[in-house]
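Hi R.,

Here's the chain you asked about this morning:
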Amino acid sequence: MTTAVLESRAGRRCHNVLNSLHAAHYFSPDLGEELSALGITHPKARNFAVRGAALGPVGPGTVAAVFYNYKYELVARHVPGVWESASPAQILDARARAVDATLRRLLGEEILTSPEMAEAAGLALRATEACTRPARPLYSAHADLPVPEQPHMALFHAATLLREHRGDGHVALLMAAGLDGLEAVVTHTATGKGMTPKWVFATRGWSQEEWDAACERLRGRGLLDGDGELTEQGVALRAQIEADTDRLDRAPYEHLGAQGVERLTELGKAFAGAAVGAGAFPADLIGKD
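And here is the predicted structure, written out as tokens:
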């Protein structure tokens, strides 16, 4: 398969639909119930627990480093405390139960047991065969986990690997561009494709004052204008970061091939659309305001 066969943004489109399916469990009541049963009751601790568990019982510095856009002080309020409530292995088991329950509720048994689900799982797993470990800590940690047998869980596993593989490369590029964690979030929100400030404050630990200070720094660099919109330079920077992220993340989709990527995107879009239609995400999650 030559690089010319695969359209430049095809991998990004495929990632986006699979990431939507993956991310649904973070907003699921099923996850809260499973973790509460383990003694992890604070809503802000859930993400650190389930996404960080594959790393083992690490400290807040490691979690803050690999998550990148969370305020360290927020992470430190919950890590390593989550490992005192439950072991990483227990949390991973709880995550699997929550994902299973969430997908059953959002998609229904007919979709979960369909040939299309099995096909999507096979395609996504094939793509992961070309993911690479060096400099990708979150991907590498999740790649050490076993592949589930049930197709819908195997698809979630593969979607997680592809998400973290792309995300690890994206973080490196944000740092290279001189955007700290909050500045990265502010510029993403300014594109209209990121989380609203309300959800950034609720989940990432930043305050309005810190947000305003980040905006001021970005204005000083010529990346934001006085209204908080991206300048021409800011738009160009975000576009370059995304293009470079595509480049670093190209191997899995080249390995799958153009037809495989197109089919996986088609299947993933149908599944993600069903999940969104079933109320998987808050209505005010994405946007500028």
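One quick note: The radius of gyration is 19 Å.

Cheers,
M.
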